[in-house]
Amino acid sequence: MHDTALAIGRMFFELYGDRPGLRVVELGSQDVNGSFREVLPESCSYVGVDLEPGKNVDLVCRGTHIALPDERPTLHSHRRSPSMTRFSG
To answer: I need a surface site. Which of 13, 23, 58, 85 has the fewest CB within 10 A?
Structure first.
């Protein structure tokens, strides 16, 4: 992860991280040189999704339909791109 992306993630969590039930799903989450998980507030839940298993990957998904592990609504994606998506309770 580029250092500026991590800095932007840190600012995001400083602004929005205190919301009850905040849930973060990171697409393209494999930790090559850093992760948003490093700056995530303890009160937030996090799921790291990637195409291949690896460090910081909680869920491997090879398609466009991602079934999140706690049976909440699923995330549908039509293209893979590293991004952060915010879900609340």
So the answer is: 85
Counted domains in the chain: 1
Looking at per-residue confidence, does 39 or 76 come out higher? 39
| Cα(20)–Cα(75) distance, integer angstroms | 20
Q: What is the CA radius of gyration of the chain?
A: 12
For 1-89, strand residue ranges (E) read: 22-27, 45-50, 59-60, 65-66, 75-76, 83-88
Name the pTM for this structure: 0.66
Distance of CA 53 to the CA centre of its chain: 15
CB 18 within 8 Å of CB 88: no
Residue-wise pLDDT tens digits, 11-60: 988 888 888 888 888 888 899 888 888 888 888 888 898 889 999 999 88
Q: Which domain holds residue 47?
A: 3-88
